[in-house]
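can u pls check wat happens w/ magnesium ion
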Amino acid sequence: MSDPVNVTELGSSEFKEFLDSFDHVFSDCDGVIWIEDALPGSGEFFKKMKGHGKTVHYVSNNSLRTKQNYVEIFKAAGIDDGYENLTIPSTAIAEYLKSVNFDKKVYCITCPETFKVLQSNGFKCVQGPDFGSDFYQEYAQYLDDDPEVGAVVCDCDFNVNLIKMHKAIMYLRRPDVLFITGATDRYALVKPGCLALGTGPFTDIIIEESKRVPISMGKPGKTFGEFAMSRAGVTNPSRVLFIGDTIATDVGLGKNTGFKTLLVLNNATKEDMMAHKTLKPDYFADSLESIVPLL
Ligand SMILES: [Mg+2]
């Protein structure tokens, strides 16, 4: 594994070589284009990339935002066509279920938006209970299997609880029940310098206890990377530069799917990057803004 290259320290011919090494830019959103608010230089960065003939696509693990919210924040970042070119777990999961002609109930341990997206795609969705019981005796009322449930979906439910996890594990005991995960982030950057615990560790418990391997429709899952490629009309992963701020999800997705990777240091530090034992990006930079003058 060779050491990551700081693109802002490349000479002009080396920078041109870097630019010539990809045709498509895929970018994460949270922590790259915005952190709470749009980060300066983001819109300019993608405009310049398009000026160099690159196609641009956005790939986020965040299904929590509504469409309107995405449209607004892309606009604030100076990006007019962001939502149309965005791949997120909720829509990827809906497309996957359609592709296998799924027609049973989906048990959702998801954020409200993912639940809505699956419902609006015609799937029968069930969820809850949102509040657990204080005693195992009361908790027993929730534990009858429902043979109509044919899929369990986990995607960023901030109200995940013991009973929901138990129900998921119970359904997954039937081998024909599909198991699909969206975002499995262990931490999320919620404001500059502040990482909050994500819902990934809860999904890990379900994976471990059910002994099932989920279909991963979120970063760093290869299926998700390939889904983004097909949405973007891209066939050769080695001609994609994937930009992200999180080593495990973004550099991980790049490695799993065969993309080149660029880490922006809005979240991980250079020391974190160098210390990671298995995942190193090909390139790094302080931010998108720091690359704009070279473009
Ligand atoms: Mg991010």
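The pocket of magnesium ion is lined by residues 28, 30-32, 244-246 (CB under 6 Å).
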